[in-house]
């Protein structure tokens, strides 16, 4: 079972179901990944999604990545990808997969620059963050291609156009 815990800073528009958006994006990314079977696990897989501000994300980016600037999304995995196979032996309880953090001002600016809805961009970034929690990265070009293809597939399953 997947459990998405969501917190939303008041800076994010109040007329949107950010909790539902986060849960759908997390589930869509998981479904297209090699770890998709976690959705049917006997234990609860917990993911935290926080819709925060640029200031908050900048502080985290500075403290954890030595980059003193805001970024659109940060992911903090709590499980090493090499340990996913061992999860099959877990019978019950809860596994904390990690945290995903989005920065409002950066996300809103990027959405406007791309000419897309903030909801579509935020959905993309949550799915992107979830793939990071599942062990994907985009440092090497080949890995970036794999990750982007998974993002495109997850978003298509949610009715969102290719962001690339």
From TrEMBL:
Q: Entry's PROSITE patterns?
A: UPF0054
Top-level EC class = hydrolase
Q: Which Pfam families match?
A: YbeY (PF02130)
Q: Name one GO molecular function term.
A: RNA endonuclease activity
- Name the keywords, alphabetized: Cytoplasm, Endonuclease, Hydrolase, Metal-binding, Nuclease, Ribosome biogenesis, rRNA processing, Zinc
List its EC numbers. 3.1.-.-
GO-annotated biological processes: rRNA processing
Source species taxonomy: Bacteria, Pseudomonadati, Pseudomonadota, Alphaproteobacteria, Sphingomonadales
Protein location: Cytoplasm
How is the co-factor bound, per the entry? Binds 1 zinc ion.
Q: Name one GO cellular component term.
A: cytoplasm
Report the protein name in the record.
Endoribonuclease YbeY
The cofactors it requires, by name, are: Zn(2+)
Residues reported in the UniProt entry to bind Zn(2+): 128, 132, 138
Tell me its family: Belongs to the endoribonuclease YbeY family.
What task does this protein carry out? Answer: Single strand-specific metallo-endoribonuclease involved in late-stage 70S ribosome quality control and in maturation of the 3' terminus of the 16S rRNA.
Q: Which InterPro entries match?
A: MetalPrtase_cat_dom_sf_prd, YbeY, YbeY_CS
């Amino acid at each position: 079972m997947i459990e998405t815990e969501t917190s939303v800073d008041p800076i994010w528009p109040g007329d949107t179901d950010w909790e539902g958006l986060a849960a759908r994006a997390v589930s869509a990314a998981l479904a297209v990944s090699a770890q998709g079977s976690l959705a049917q696990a006997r234990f609860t897989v917990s993911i935290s999604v926080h819709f925060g501000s640029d200031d908050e994300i900048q502080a985290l980016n500075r403290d954890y990545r030595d980059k003193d600037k805001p970024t659109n999304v940060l992911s903090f995995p709590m499980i090493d990808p090499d340990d996913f196979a061992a999860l099959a032996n877990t019978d019950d309880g809860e596994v904390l997969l990690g945290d995903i953090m989005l920065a409002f001002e950066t996300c809103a600016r990027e959405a406007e620059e791309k000419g897309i809805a903030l909801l579509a961009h935020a959905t993309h970034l949550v799915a992107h963050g979830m793939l990071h929690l599942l062990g994907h990265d985009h440092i090497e070009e080949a890995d970036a291609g794999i990750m982007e293809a998974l993002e495109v597939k997850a978003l298509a399953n949610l009715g969102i156009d290719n962001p690339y």
